[in-house]
Amino acid sequence: MQKKAEFLLLRSKAKMWSLQNLLFTICIALICVTSAVGVIHVTGYLGSKVEISCSYGPGYQSYEKYLCRNDCDDSDVLITTSELTKNKYKTHDDKTARIFTAIISDLHSTDAGKYWCGVSKNWNDIYTEVKLELVPDSCCDSVTKVESYAGYSVSFSCPYESSYQNNLKYICKGTRPSICLQQALITSDNRENPRFSLDDEKMSTKFTTKISSLTQSDSGRYLCGIQRNSDLHLFCAFELKVKDHCCDTVTNIESYEGYSKSINCPYENQYRNSLKYICRGNRPSTCLQRALITSNNRENGRFSLDDEKTSRIFTLTISSLTQSDSGYYLCGVQTNSDHDVFSAVDLKVKEWCCVRSTEITGTVGHPLTLQCPYPRQHRDNRKFLCKGDHRNSCRDMVMSESRFALRDDIYSSSFSVMITKLEEADAGTYWCGSDSRWRVGNYTKIQLSVEFLQHTSTVPSTVKTPGKTVPPTSENLVKTQTSTMKALGKTQTSIMKALGTTQTSTMKALGKTQTQTPGQPVKDAALYVPFTVPPVLLLLIGILVVVVYKWKYHKVKEDEAIVDRNAPKAKGLEEVMGAMDNDIYGNQEVMMYSKKQTSKQQSACAQYEDEDEEQDYENFTTSEDIYCNENFHLANRK
């Protein structure tokens, strides 16, 4: 009986213990359910920081709050409001809003998990469960790529849900969402920025950001952000590429000087009616301002534009190409967006001529032959030689000049042109032509120079004058010859004057030694002449030779010129001197003649005056006494 009572007692205690456990379990379950209902979800970025905010009821403003993990034992408490800062944790208690905030910095993957916001009480604390998730600090899975050019503007739009119409919008440059708001270039609350603008179109639920006056430094990743209070902000990403030149793909074309070349520029169908234009260079931002030609003005000198809308290609044609036309060209199509559409072409203009360029020098007045090889495929073409600085404007010399003769040698694939008599005007540039269309081939360009034949002469190379050396010009030679002839003339005149004076003096002397009776011959006149005339005449000739020699020597010394005369001039000088000698001998004969005519003095003088006056006394002046015997005439007057 007693054992049965003990069994019943133990059984009763067991039931009571089971009931307590059940009640405890129910209480714990109720608490957990309550906590589960109040779980706060927080998401943070690895390497960044996160804020955990927990609200509490009225009356607990002065109570201590704390953040803990796991079972919230004393060792699990991370920080309390009495500490404010501990390691990488911070707290802030906004008693007015009754919100306790804990900040965790330098987040790592191990920081993810369950946390508790606690309010300390005497018997049991008040707990709020927090679940922290960590994600990489980057954005986004999808990136929109945008391209533009330096100097242009660019816009990109960020859509959002209608529930975020009144949320803060912003844009930043970079790839880290955790710091995007702090580094925002512009926000919907602060829209003042010189080059950035933000337009929030709430009706279409998107906001648009525009960047103007682009530079290459604007290239990079941009994030459009929408702020959310209890979770991560919403982002969309853009990759902007600002090009300094255009384009990634360049079409290479080649042509030759003097030719025409067409540049084809395709475009999309939506731009059929848009403005088309072409400019030089690779700067799209200034291309329209520097356009060579547009679809509104299709002719501009050597440039023309044709827009084939059916094939969606517009074509630029450049005529009369030169090497300066080489370089980049941009085909532009104007659009309604921030930048136009471009395609690039690299044009290379090659030198048309020549396989062989040669220089030739010819002599004026002499024949000259020009050799012109030509390509074998031009064997049956008409050959020609033209003159001019450029082949497109040269003149066919064989057709226009009779002095030019062409001979074609088809076996050697060359032709020759002979100039029968080269002229000074023939100098210049010549083109050997074997194709009237001047298609590219192996042509020859000839640069012809002319020179004059140099004549040899015995004339001295220089004529010396005081202080300088004068070259032997024709003017100096003429002056030298004239001076020589004048000297010879003066010498002859001096000799004639001396002979005349001698003759007169002799006749005067004879008149004084004998008195002449009119009508009677002079007695013994012949005795005086042989003894008097020869010595005097020889003396005068000697004096004259000395005078002439000294005069010539003085003349040469004065001019300081050395004149080497050639053979003909020397011969002419000998003839002049011979003539002078003949004149001297002639005067001697006159004197001998007067010696023989001693008996007819008056008659001889009269005959001498009548017959020989013009010949022998042509160099005498009127002031000189030219009569034979002054005493004879005085006696005759008596």
UniProtKB/TrEMBL annotation:
Limits of the Immunoglobulin domain: 39-135, 143-243, 250-350, 357-451
Matches recorded under SMART domains: IG (SM00409), IGv (SM00406)
InterPro entries xref list: CD300_family_receptors, Ig-like_dom_sf, Ig-like_fold, Ig_sub, Ig_V-set
Classification via Pfam families: V-set
Record domain Immunoglobulin V-set: where: 153-226, 231-333
Transmembrane segments: 525-549
Main localization, broad class: membrane
Coiled-coil ranges per UniProt: none
Record's subcellular location: Membrane
Keyword list, A-Z: Membrane, Transmembrane, Transmembrane helix
Molecular function terms, GO-annotated: transmembrane signaling receptor activity
Any one Gene Ontology cellular component term annotated for this protein: plasma membrane
Protein name (Swiss-Prot/TrEMBL): Polymeric immunoglobulin receptor
